[in-house]
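Tutorial handout. Part one gives the primary structure; part two gives the three-dimensional structure as C-alpha cells.
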Amino acid sequence: MRKFIVVIAAILVVAEAQYHEYEHKEQGKGGFGGSKFITPVDIHHEQAVHLKAHPEYHYDYHVADHKHKDYKSKHEERDGYKVKGSYSLLEPDHKTIRVVDYVSDKKTGFIAKVSYKKHQ
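Part two.
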C-alpha cells in the first residue's frame, strides 16, 4: 500500500511540473474566451466579422385606461443614427397632458421640446 501511495505522489509531482512548464511556454496563448484555462489542443480562432448595419425601426403604443385615468402614448422612429419621436402622458392633476417631442443624433445629441395642453 505504501508503495502505491509513493507512485501516485510521484505521478502528481511530474504532472504538476509538466503543467507549469507548458503554462510558462504558452502563457497568453490559448484558453477559451481569454480565460486562464490552458489546453494542449490546437485551437483555431475565427476572425471577428464586423457588420455595419443600418438600424431602422418605428413603433407606436397608446394606453387609454378610463377606469384608472391613465392616458399615455409614444411614437418613435429611427433611421440610421437619427432618432425622433414624441410621447405624452396625463399629469397627476388629471387636467393637463404633457407632450414631449424629441430628436437625437450623433452630432447634436438629445434635444427635447416639452409642451402642455388641456385634457378634455
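Part three, for discussion. The two ends are 93 Å apart (CA to CA). The chain is about 20% helix and 40% strand.
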